[in-house]
Amino acid sequence: MDAIAIIDFGSQYAHLIANRVRRLGVYSEVLLPDASLAEFKKYKGIILSGGPQSVYEHGAPTIDPKVFELGIPVLGLCYGHQAIAHLLGGKVTPGETKEYGLAKLVLLKKIGIFEGIRDHSQVWMSHGDTVTKMPPGFIHLGKTDDCFYAAMGDPAKKIFSTQFHMEVTHTQHGMEMLHNFLKICEVKYEWNTEKFLEQKIVEVKKILAGRKVFLMVSGGVDSTVAYALLSEALGTDFVYGLFVDTGLLRKDEDKKIEIALRGLGIQNFHIFNGRKRFLGALKGVINPEEKRKIIGDMFLKVQAEAVKKLKLNPEQWVLGQGTIYPDTIESAGTKYADKIKTHHNRVPEILELIKKGRIVEPLAQFYKDEVRHLGEHLGLPDEIVWKHPFPGPGLAVRILCAKKTEIPEQSADTQTSINKYLRPWNLEGTILPIQSVGVQGDSRTYRRPLAIWCGRHSFDKLEQISTALTNRYWELNRVCLLLTPGEIKTCEVVAATLTEKRVKVLQELDDIVMNFIEENGLLREMWQFPTVLVPLLINGVKKEAVILRPVCSEEAMTANFYKMDFDLLKKLTAKLKPHVSAVLYDVTNKPPGTIEWE
Ligand code: XMP
Fold first, then answer.
1. Closest ligand 1 atom to the C-alpha of 392?
2. CA proximity to 312, closest of 343, 364, 355
3. N or C, fewer C-beta in 10 Å, the chain?
4. Average pLDDT per 10 consecutive residues for the chain, totaling 598 residues
5. Beta strand pairing status for 151-154 and 139-143?
């Protein structure tokens, strides 16, 4: 199959470039710069990625200049652009102006990668060094305010390069430019999911050579797709899937996954029921971090037990993992996802497999969008393929626990001051007698939420007010809008811990919410939608209150609360109201709030 090589000079975007090329229908692979010329010759085009170093520094990554004589088209991006200049007789120097962020590209010649591209379009820059002299034979193709040689090329040799990153979405016409490069490569558009599957099946069979695979299935899209793919490749008898039911999952989650997998003809799927053990260990625990630790430790224990029974002899077994590309770079994925992954791999039998290099990670080169596409292709249902991320500790971090005595006294002055602040907006509010986790100034906070009501404001306005309030009053890290009619006259906190009964209550509420957003086509608009149970009896109603926390995010490090249509929200509130004392809507971004409440 025709393929494009992406040379990774240490950029976080190298795999993103590969992803973009595949999206355009052409197979691509990421190679290290020291690959041999014979290796490079296999490709129809070569893209040099960005990288954190300076090309002129001693020891900076480089490539054999003979690559440019192979007659294979080359595209250099950022560091790749500078590497081309440096290696072919141009000059790179530390820039007088460092350029980060958006810039306008002035096109001087619309040829090669710029054919048909609109002038003055937005491009995304991130560089300190600058090309100050082009190599002989190169034509100056584009500039920005702060970067004279923003683009250059030697059309006869089919070498083009840009200082900006055309692989990121902030570069308006990046995909078209990449597409133009693929045209220059005269490459066949042969890449699709079927091809990938065929290829992976061959590859996986070769690596495994008759051994069996053990895989922990979390129910999330990555591990489920990896499991389905391996089962398809090897036959279901050769892939043992283990799912630990902590009892802290969404309603019927175990059944849904089982049905989905069995629907694909996968039989070798095993559920370990740990419900009693997990809830038993969490009895009486209030502190969120303590809950997390107990769950993590218990997870290891039950996993170790289940794995021991299997007697995973490393000669016969390989460990399967649903690792996807962002999991392997520090800045992407969620900071917690890593922790949970280590949990999965820390029991001695599994460590032994890892030590012996007995690991197969069929999705390791891919991004979430590709994994989802593959899941669809493998026949997994939408509710698995488009599933929101779900935290390892599950509903435990969405069921607030409290001891009445531990709620810090609030100062009457603060409440008075807040009331005064809210008045011009025709809003009223009360500081709730519970605490939730937040993140302010890079550290975690454990502070109080403010509930507000009255005043008919748009979510945009509420966002401004919420931000102003959390900036102004350090006691607060969240603001919630009361959705149920009326006001909060009384609010009593009740002592509460994690019990089966409370888990059931939240499972039902969460089920109502998730069904509602699915029925209304909102599932894909959000990153996650936690529903949170809080031990507050509002206005004397002897039921707990619920908080809705839908968010939009790219990778969970920051998030914005989702601005749901008010009419829809009214309908959702009506469905929840009979089960709770009040329904609130979290109107806090991250920071200062976290996505989860604990
Ligand atoms: P926060 O609440 O910190 O969450 O904004 C960011 C993302 O991480 C998920 N999350 C967890 N995932 N174990 C996990 O596997 C955890 O302990 C955990 N805590 C939060 C959260 O759902 C969100 O996607």
1. 15
2. 355
3. N
4. 93 86 92 94 97 91 96 97 98 82 93 97 89 98 95 98 91 96 97 83 87 90 93 92 93 91 88 93 91 88 84 85 70 33 56 80 84 91 90 93 74 91 96 89 83 92 94 93 96 94 98 96 94 97 98 81 97 98 96 92
5. antiparallel
CATH number for domain 193-392, candidates 3.30.70.120, 3.30.110.40, 1.20.1050.10, 3.40.50.620: 3.40.50.620
Q: The pTM is what?
A: 0.74
- Ligand 1 pocket: which of 595, 597, 598 to mutate (most atoms <8 Å of CB)? 595
- Ramachandran sector of residue 442 (left: φ over 0; alpha: ψ -120 to 50; beta: rest): left
* The dihedral sign for the CA sequence 188, 193, 195, 196: positive
According to DSSP, residue 21 is labeled H
Cβ of residue 334 lying under 6 Å from some atom of ligand 1: yes
DSSP-assigned letter for residue 427 = -
Topology classification of domain 3-185: Rossmann fold (3.40.50)
Q: Does residue 549's CB lie within 6 angstroms of at least one atom of ligand 1?
A: no
In the chain, list all ranges with CATH 3.30.300.10: 404-586
Which residues are tagged catalytic? 78, 165, 167
Name the 3-class secondary structure at 264.
Answer: coil
Q: Which two tokens stand for residue 50?
A: 């960005």
393 lines ligand 1 (CB under 6 A): yes
User: Would you say 24 and 50 are in contact if contact means Cβ atoms under 8 Å apart?
Assistant: no
Q: Closest by alpha carbon to 433, among 491, 390, 391? A: 491
Question: Among the CATH numbers 3.30.300.10, 2.60.40.1080, 3.40.50.1400, 3.40.50.300, which is that of 404-586?
Answer: 3.30.300.10
Q: Is the CB of 528 under 6 A from ligand 1?
A: yes
Residue 559 alpha carbon, nearest atom of ligand 1? 5
527 lines ligand 1 (CB under 6 A): no
Give the separation between CA 234 and CA 213, rounded to whole angstroms.
9
